[in-house]
Fold these 4 entries.
Entry 1:
Amino acid sequence: MLHDVAEEGSEPTPSALRTAYADVLRSTVEAVGPGTVDAETDVEADRIEALAAGDSPNFTVEEAAAVLAVDPDQPDAEAIVFELRDHLLMGMTTGVLDVDTIAANVEVDLTGQEIQQAIEGRTPMTLDQLAAIQSVIDGRRA
């Protein structure tokens, strides 16, 4: 799933995480077929095709979860998003991080309040934003 794509022992940089997200999404599309993903999600067909072709469209977390959930071996999209949010919040607790500290250390232009809203699901979070946030959280726990 999205929260556990980083390799154990590797440095969780935003670019490494973003590449890993794209790889796991691409693997799902390859396994079930772009047509199936198109039919079972609200993600535009051209973005699914771009992913399958090796590009890395910037999906929202919800879109990525929908793609992953097409795989019958994965939980539904809602469970994937819930588990991701839980992972981020637990990481913040373990790493003794607050949203303002994360905001001060991310390479994306988000305030502490915007990070909190994204983690809680009150605003959409892109995979680029997730990679930046997860990098800070996982880096602090390492």
Entry 2:
Amino acid sequence: MNSKAVSETVGAMLVIFVMVFTAGIIYMMSYPTISSGIDNINYRNAVKTMAEIKELVERMKFGSEVATIKTIQLNMGSIYTSAGLNLSFNLGSVNVKRQLQNLNIEVSGRIVTLESGIFEKAYGEVIPIPISEPSVIATNDTVYFTFYNFIGKFSAGGSRVTMSMRYNATEQFNATKLEIEGDFCELWKKAIEKMDSSILANSDCSDRKIVVETALPREISILIVSIEVS
């Protein structure tokens, strides 16, 4: 065999090896940045999707829409219902308890939740600033709360999911005392303080609960919008 040809072959193989090795090193160095970029894109898509879902259920709340089908790009995330708020309020001398369900999109270690506002957990920890505020409005004679209750044991995952939503009912209750218990207690507390801190009878969230209380003729109006998801 011609020694020159052998030399050229070995040289070419060495060049290829160096190129492959260098490409591998570059990929390993840039992988965290690429991965972080993909995670951020998936997270932003989850937030955008949840904002669109909130707009849909708000239309249902006011009777503008009865049922709809939503196609969701999850990019290997998941969407599901889960136990949400526990509410306790008085109707005259009767104490009423209700457990509501939230709708969640989980992607890249983050959970985006629709409860009343849009809230977030990152790696199990509640983010102290809401994506959108909970629905609390205070006037001189009434404090209005809106809650969403997503009915059904719904769970789906993958890249592309189709979810059906159907309006079930809107219930309205008038009370003078309301207890809100849930993981996002601090976000509810902050929203109520912005409206009227004087109605917070108990603002200690160490037990995940706050208590809102008014004195007649001022009342608390509680609106619970139930949506079936499948």
Entry 3:
Amino acid sequence: MFNISARNQLNGTVKAVHPGKVNGLVVIDVDGQEIVADITMGSIKRLGIEEGKKVVAIIKASSVMVAAGADIAISARNQLNGTVKSVEEGAVNGIVEIELAGGQTVTADITMGSIKKLGLEAGKKAAAVIKATEVMVGVEA
């Protein structure tokens, strides 16, 4: 884990790198689920990102959307399925923690209106939905 403000730091292994002219897609296996990061080719080269490398997918909680259930049709590439572990209610926003099958968790900072509308509560199936452009990739220095 890095000492940074982003709550979500998911340990994984690079499954594939799809290079482009300016950006590339890094496919990361996180406990059997894939998360795709859209980052610059310069970063991919500088960090030595290649298949089999251990990396950390880093996502701010405010960049995580939540879907009730799993496998929804949406343009966001990343849908990490799990179970709501906890909901911390606030006046305007709340914190939803989703536990993935391997035990890692994804935290989302979403509005209380959305929490109530989706009926999010501990034990309910949910998916953390994240655009590939919102995923940073870290490697151990």
Entry 4:
Amino acid sequence: MSKGKDQKPHIGIFGRRNHGKSSLINCLSGQDIAIVSDVAGTTTDPVKKSMEIDGIGPVILVDTAGIDDTGDLGKQRIKKSLQTIPNMDLAVLVITNNTWDSFEEDLIKKFQKKEVDFVVVHNKTDQFPIEEMFQKEVEARVGTTLIPFSCLKADNLERLIEEMRKNIPESAYQSNTLIGDLISAGDTVLLVTPIDDEAPEGRLILPQVQLIRDVLDNDAVAVVLKERELDEHISKMNPKPALVVTDSQVFLKVDGSVPNNIPMTSFSIVLARQKGNFEHYLKGTYQLGELKDGDKILLLESCTHHVSCDDIGRVKIPRWLDQFSGKKLEYTVVSGLDQVPGEITDYAIVIQCGGCVITKKQVHNRLMPAIEAGVPVTNYGMAIAFVQGIYHRAILPFTKEETDNSIYL
């Protein structure tokens, strides 16, 4: 599973071959969606399935290959399975036959290292009842309840689902408002949405749709227009908008058109606050003013799409950074949740997109290697605002601080 395509909480099913991981997926979903076989290693690449879990809502179940796979191909399958761990909001470790050794120990350590909550299921209890001493030892070792289960009987399904509900972080499925704390009922929010070569045919991009919904959820009024209509419309607005949110690509145009007493920011920065490591973004952005010849810039783009001649990550941001810094910089763009080439310390700064199509957990774990290594991180919209000299204004709605960045203007 190399690419994040859904914001629903991700629940990964892990364990050895032939321990019933695919059967558990089918049991949870009530459908035959994963191939089940007595042949070990039937599941190869991670497979995703959407379903609804009572008390959590829509989730993505991820069926992974066995962690005890063998051979060169088996090692590649294990690697892919382990690479999914940082993207999970909850892990379900499936064991059976009262068996626990280094395979399970290593998985638990990886869950804990990536701060992924987990539950442990002893499957096939109709064939291999749990031994009392084994259960006590495992529960003492992992600090959680060992759940007896049989996919054949499914008589303990409600208990398993209850444990999943208890252990999955609420932040994985309870969405925080995007701008609800910045506006009041009855306010008008002006959304500036350019329709250019990158705009999808016949629809708006996801961040724009999310903002419209958030405005409506907070009993406010959303006014949506293109940047070409902004000057005429804003001069006639009475009362004036409580907030203007723009596509980052037209920051300068909107900054010049919107009076300074009206708060202004971008869709990308709104998402950065909701999903990203915002405090690290605020600090890391200033590294853009310290770039040197030969510095490598890593751009993390969470979705995959057709690349146009004006692509924001591959074309526009590099062009603006080159113009701003006057340096010879190198750029690497990584799409989806693919692996970052080289060492994270090879890069002078990491620039993450808004992350509208992936979960908060995925954004967090995407950035943690850089943060832990001391590599500055920022966000597409914040980087654009910075190099265009309007960073302070763009972050002010969220910081309310008089940050002096005039040396970069």
